[in-house]
Amino acid sequence: MSLSQLFLLPEIKKHRKSSTGSLFDQFLLFHIANPEILGILENIALDLLNQGWKKGSINLIFERVRWLYAIQTQGDKYKLNNNHRAFYARLIMMINPDLDGFFSIRYQHSEPDVFQNVRLKRVCDQEIARRSWNAIQ
Questions:
Q1: Are 103 and 42 in contact (CB under 8 A)?
Q2: Residue 41 confidence (pLDDT) above 90
Q3: Among candidates 93, 61, 78, which has minimal Cα distance to 9?
Q4: Is pLDDT at 10 greater than 80 in this prediction?
Q5: Which of 18, 59, 66, 115 has its CB surrounded by the most CB atoms within 10 Å?
Q6: How far is CA 58 from CA 2, 33, 96, 111, 119, in A?
Q7: DSSP codes joined into one string, the chain
């Protein structure tokens, strides 16, 4: 079995571009089109936590996922946007209490933190509801 057969990753779907140009809106559109990416990133963070890591790096995890896609696919049509890293780090820590504080985060200049956190909380609540629904199916 080849290394690429060990990891069966979902295809990254194209998504429509944000009309506002906001980094957060671009992240939301990508997440809506590719919700499974969040789970992949979260699982890798949990693996690090379970191996004794007290703090993790969303950059490390992002690059690992890029590497997994690189060995499974041809060319460069499967992309993860660097601008999404901070949003994924925040969302992962909001969704999974075990990972709260696992990533170091900085103030984001793209939107006021209060507004952004309210919107991210909605995404978090939707993700938790989706996972709960899937668990009872």
A1: no
A2: yes
A3: 78
A4: no
A5: 18
A6: 27, 20, 15, 20, 20
A7: --HHHH--PPPPPP-PPPSS--HHHHHHHHHHH-THHHHHHHHHHHHHHHTT-SSB-HHHHHHHHHHHHHHHSSTT-S---GGGHHHHHHHHHHH-GGGTT-B-----SSS-HHHHHHHHHHHHHHHHHHHHHHHH-
And the tokens for 66?
């890029």
Sign of the Cα pseudo-torsion (39, 99, 29, 106, in order): negative
Show Cβ contacts of residue 50 under 8 Å, excluding neighbours closer than 6 positions.
Answer: none
Burial 60-80 (b: 16+ CB within 10 A, else e): ebbeebeebbeebeeeeebeb
pLDDT at residue 73 is higher than 60: no
On whether the CB atoms of residues 71 and 81 are closer than 8 A, the answer is no
Structure-model confidence comparison of residues 73 and 29, the more confident one = 29
pLDDT digits (tens, 9 = 90+) for 95-135: 898 999 999 887 666 655 555 667 777 787 888 887 877 78
